[in-house]
Amino acid sequence: MDPVAPNGNELLLALLAMGLPLLSFFLVFFVTRPWVNLSCAVSLVCSGLPLSAAVWLLAGHWRMEAPILWQLTWMEGGGALVTFGFLLDPLSLLMLVIVTAVSFLVQVYSLGYMAGDPGKAKYYAFLSLFAWSMISLVLASGLMQLYIFWELVGLSSYLLIGFWHHKFSASQAGKKAFVMTRLGDLGFFLGIIVLLLNLGDLSILGLNQQAAARLTPGLLTASALLIFCGVVGKSAQFPLLTWLPDAMEGPTPVSALLHSATMVAAGVYLVSRLFPFYQGSPQALGWVLVIGTVTMLLSSTMAMVAEDIKQVWAYSTVSQLGFMLMGLGAGGYFAGVYHLATHAAFKALLFLCSGVFIHQYATNDFFAMARAGARGLKVPMLTLTLAGAALSGVWPLAGFFSKETVLAALAELPNPAWLWLGILGAGLTAYYTFRLLFVMWRPRRLEPPPEHGERAGHGAHEGHGAAVYWVMAAPLLVLAALTVLLGAAGPALQSFLAWGRPLPAGAHHTWLVWASVLVVATGAGLAWLEFGRAGAAQQGFLSRMPGLWNLFANRWYLDWLYRWLLDHVVYGLFSRLFTLNDRRVVDGGIDGFCRATLGAGWLFSLLQSGLLQYNLFTMVLVMALVGLYFLLV
Amino acid sequence: MNSLHTYLFIALVLFCIGLFGLLKRRSLIGMLISVELMLNGAGLNFMAFNRFLAPDPAVGQVAVLFIMGIAAAEAAIALSLILALFRKIRSVNVEQARQLKG
Amino acid sequence: MNAGFPYLSAILLAPALGMLVILLLPHGNQRAVRWVSLVSAVICLALSVYLYAAYDRAAAGLQFVERASWVPSLGIFYYLAVDGINLPMVLLTSIVFFTGVWTMWDLQHRVKEFFALMLLMVVGVYGVFLSLDLFFLFVWYDVSLFPMYPLIAIWGSTRKEYGALKLTLYLLAGSALVLPGILYVYFQSGLFTFDLVQIAQAGLPVEAQYLGFFLFLFGFGVLAGLWPFHTWSPVGHVAAPTAVSMIHAGVLMKLGAYGVLRVGMFLCPQGLGDWSPLFALLATVGIVYGAFVGLAQTDLKYVIGYSSVSHMGLVSLGLATMSQGGLSGAVFQMFAHGIMTALFFSSVGHIYDRTHTKLIPELGGMAKVMPRASFFFILAALAGIGVPCLASFWAELLVFIAGYRAYPVLGVCAVLGLVVSALFMLRVVQKTFYGVKNERFAQAGDMTMVMIVPRALLAGTILLFGLLPRLALDLINTGVAPLVGMFK
Predict the structure, then answer these.
(1) Are residues A334 and A464 in the same domain?
(2) Which ipTM score applies to this complex?
(3) What interhelical angle do C30-54 and C7-24 show, nearest 10?
(4) C-alpha distance from residue C481 to each of A136, B7, C477 (Å)
(5) Is the model's pLDDT at C2 over the cut of 70?
(6) Which residues of chain B make contact with A613, given a CB cutoff of 8 A?
(7) Which chain C residues in 161-200 lie under 8 Å from chain A, judged by CB atoms?
(8) CA C46/CA A505 separation, integer angstroms
(9) How far is B52 from chain A (nearest CA, A)?
(10) N or C end of chain C, less CB within 10 A?
């Protein structure tokens, strides 16, 4: 399919979606920052308009036939050509709507959540920057542009995670997120260079259409795996997954944004974006599948023991991302993308609901929230339950359908182990989700709410209760509606993503549906036994296995390993050795050289007795010797 | 007897006595006198060569006159330096003047 | 080409005349001294911006040429011209000079002498960048170096005599290699001219290029902070007063790289071919090494100093690749790094002025105390770790691509250095600016609007060239292209 140029309308809308958030960033950050309300208004307008533009574009191109491409030369030098532009096709349009919708809703929600925070205007500026980078990433026409905005997404998440940077843990988490994703990006960058040097064409369409034919299989796999390193970093896959739970230090709306539609979703988006390219290399897809599976299981176990509500959702995000990658790795393009879309809706909802509780009770511990009477907040509690049910895959919510498509994709694989691992993951997901829900719904005993003001940034805004509550509740309702509706939109989306062509008739596994329903029911039932039923001790079976408990609660000691590597290898070995080398060898060498010069001068000065006649004597002697020399030779 | 060698030998003796005195004497006055001896030895050489080898242009005589003039000037400067030194360290012994020791 | 207003001589004359006027001013008149410096800086800035805009990119080559014979019997010419390589450097010098003067506005100690020496240094820098005559180039080179000693030793801080002495000795040792190199080239070429272009066109014998490039590489390399001859630079940066650090790290280090490029590579392209593996190796070691040593530093200025070592390693790596992309990247990196370090030192200078410390453990929470200063520092740090849409990203991109193409292993190591530099920059940002507000410095004021101007100019330049890299690269590419043709 050859791309076509956009008409004026499309160009305008796409540039509007790409440009407005940047404008808003500069405006808010440099101009309107002292006026908080004005800043919020600017930012909201500049995220609302792109949403409308995105919806308009999507609606107008529901039956598009060829991708729309528009690009400029951004930079050129030495054979490297970086373009800036946009590529509109079903995938990018769908993702554009998701990104703009979630970021708009998060901005609305933040009006309440961040009310009274002294840095609110700056916060909105950063949100705009985040939206800009993500939108430009999604629409990127070339891999280099995608990489650039990929890095900018990393930057904005660094700024937002560390937003309350007076807290050490927050600034630490921001740094960790940046450096760990950077580590993955290293691979991404090298992959791009390999492609550039061997293919010379970095446009996404070109890669998808020609890479498989023009590259040797080895190079193709190598570059695909290198690019996947970036995905591992950004989507918090094993082994670079530990930054994401720490990233919960940011304000909760940021977590919602980070976890549903931006940042971590970027990784999965990249694999989907280059899906035909990946399909050229079965080995690379195999690795995607392996990494996705390991990550999904590992992080599910971590979620089973977490007691911080945001941590539970963070681990579940990691595991769901792994699940999407499993779908993609199994060759299920639609499965991965569809799960990405539904996940964006219900995960944003989960975080935003949790934000209401955190805002209200000033704690992250869901046991404490429950005791403080969390179930009294009707809207968030109901939407939380809805989203939780969607996450665990309860019929007829969106999560159920997307999970089924992923499992169906796994069932196509020759090796049935992948399917069983996927189903196991679904069971674990149901267990930890319902564990949280049951604890929230059925607290053991009620307590008066704890003292406020422990969490900095949440101090002085108890007064405007109702308005704040509803500003925060409205986005919840919108997202809840989406969570329900997206389930029904599956077939339509599928045909949209397939360019309206008739779908290949995949085998329908009726038994698969029943198997997964059974597993989800088992997980939920186990959670009910332990946490839900009257008189339950609210202690998981894992607490009777301290070894496993510790392993899971310590994130499989991955963090410990990284800390050790950082302390002992980076700081202890390289940094210390190089510094010593600088002081002792390089500087020491120079200082030694200088000292040797001085010493030599001192030595020669010893010859100076100060007695005139010695000098004279030496002179005469030398002259005599010279004379002798000339006489004899 | 009246040959070039005689004069050259006397000049050599004069020069060596002067050199020996210059190295041996610790008194600056003595060293100055020794230097004069050496100069005279050199002057005698010039005269001898002039007389026996190139009597016509009288260049040797000119050179000797120069040496005498320079010797006079040198004596004056050296004596004034010695005086200045004497004022400073109350001695004309070079062993006392060792400020340049390294 | 020869007709018209002598813009280049005007750029050279403005600070020179400024210095003379300052020297003639009565001693107590500090206001006048500052204003004279500022006016000459503004003139230079305006002229440079004009040249930058007026340079005909399509025609490329040397433009605004001014050439006159000075000592015909020795073949010395007064020869000024700009092309795509030195024009960005001239613009960089003007920006840093202007912001440096503005940054030092509040100096109280020996104002007259300070600005006179600073102007003298700037004259030298302009001279090196503009001259295409080896003799003049060398003279200007030394003119730009020697004011460093008094500037650091009198107005500096933290072991200033040691820093000044070390720096001067190193740089003079570098010159001691450059001068024989120039004379060697002068005699080997057989033309008995110091005209760089003529020698380059005639070409040197291959054996002569081998030794010649060696002399230029290490002679100029010392000033470019080439590992392992880099230790003068952090020490010197730390000891120097703010504006001197700015000019020193921002511009002077570029003189070294520029010398390697303009003299070494122009005259001895074949010699580079022989030395480039070693050159690339030293550059890569510098990149990684500088980042790791930077991790262990506790003094803000030391951190920036080592980041400079790391970033200048990128310039060297770009040069060593001998390719269009690498050279363009190197030149762009010189420009971007100059602006970035100037912003770094300018922000640190403010913090040091207000808190009288630049030790990281003593600071902390500065983002609350002085948000504006923190903003500028953090922006510079982000530029330093290669965040896209800031100028140095593009330069690093080009250098990495070219580096990987020419030396795959070294290229990968260099990219790895980028992660370490992200770690150490963010660590500094976290420890210095984040965290709980430090009550000890609660009264330390933030930048006033007047003090923001130079920093904003630098930050704006970083953003402008970051968003629109073609503004610089289209120009640089034209300058680099003829050079690339000389390597075979």
Answers:
(1) yes
(2) 0.88
(3) 180
(4) 32, 81, 6
(5) no
(6) 22-24, 26, 94
(7) 166, 169-170
(8) 70
(9) 24
(10) C
